[in-house]
Amino acid sequence: MTVLIKYIYIFIYIFFNGSFLTWLKMLVCSGTQNDLSTTGNSEIQYNLMRERYTGCEIVMGNLEITMMEHTRDFSFLQSIREVTGYILFAINEFSRLPLDHLRVIRGTTLYEDQYALAVMVNYQKEGQHGLQELGLTHLTEILEGGVKIIQNKYLSYAPQVIWQDIVKDGAAPIILEDNGPESDEACEDVPCWGPGNDTCQILTKTVCAPQCNGRCFGRNPSECCHNECAGGCTGPLDTDCFACRNFNNSGSCVPQCPQTVIYNKHTFKLEPNPDAKYQYGSICVSQCPTNFVVDGSSCVSNCPTHKMEVEKNGVKRCELCGGLCPKGMQCTECHRMTLILCHPLLPMKSTLKSFCISQGIWIPEGDTVKLPVAIKTIHDRTGRQTFFEMTDVRKQNTVHFKKRIAGHWAIN
């Protein structure tokens, strides 16, 4: 009911406000990277997970559920369709992992650097409670990494699943050890995830005709999925995919999002693309979400060290550091100061909106700055007397500021 209410709220909000970013924020949630550590006690950890994942469809990162008692209700996980990192389910006591709508685990990060799905030690040491069903009834593809399911005392169905149909990489490890006794139940000629005919495994790879390069929706040569599909499909088009191998562009699976520039064959020039979109995980978006910045054609949480964040036309972007950089060195860090540098070798005053600091050559913060040229005068436009000495890295001599005259620093 909570998930239904949240979707009704999303629809109403988009209808009246047209806020795609708000909808996207509700659709996508951030995962965790705690491994087997916990945040506070069990109650705090559970409430954090419920708040984080209720109504979420795409987990950006890892889905980690550890050390939960058998009384906990995890039905709020049923909306999740995709996890970009790994799934870790360990040291829990409840009987079923309700990820019935999960289609794809991308495995961009792997547990123990090997596993996209790790299910371990899920039973009560002194009692009868423990994991009996994985509940992954719609999981059809793991793009990177393998599977590790060990020491689940009451789990009987996992060994029956044809994991080779799910795991894309044939060389990825699949470890199934010390679990419960295998069940005799089956769904006709295919394995099942649990009791009942509604838990039959959906096969989308091992049953395909040789003509299919990836997944299929039937056994005939004409029933191959589109190459951009992940996890299977309902038809041959790029709009029929269960999930996208690379990017989802408004319902179509594409190898890349519409680029920011396109080639004009009449003018022989690159021109801005009015339909450009940015990569946000596996989604193409027209705007990056709040707290993300544009770096080329992608939405990133922070600019790389050799770039600085600037705002143009209301959009935050990453741009290369301006200013001087020692010859032959790669600029690796920005130092944000606005200075006018005057030097006899320069034909005119040069305004620098940032120093470009090369590791091992420049010092980014503090009272000493190393410059690639001998500067005679510095005009401080920031109004702050930040730097008190400079060092010429070639001669290793230090010049000290003497006094400030008419807005200029006079130095020895």
UniProtKB/TrEMBL annotation:
Residues 55-166 form the Receptor L-domain domain. Its EC number is 2.7.10.1. The chain crosses the membrane at residues 7-28. The keyword rRNA processing does not apply. Residues 182-327 form the Furin-like cysteine-rich domain. GO terms for biological process: cell surface receptor protein tyrosine kinase signaling pathway. It catalyses: L-tyrosyl-[protein] + ATP = O-phospho-L-tyrosyl-[protein] + ADP + H(+). It is an enzyme of class 2 (transferase). Its main location: membrane. It is found in: Membrane. Keywords: ATP-binding, Glycoprotein, Kinase, Membrane, Nucleotide-binding, Phosphoprotein, Receptor, Transferase, Transmembrane, Transmembrane helix, Tyrosine-protein kinase. The keyword Zinc-finger does not apply. This is receptor protein-tyrosine kinase. The lineage of its organism: Eukaryota, Metazoa, Chordata, Craniata, Vertebrata.
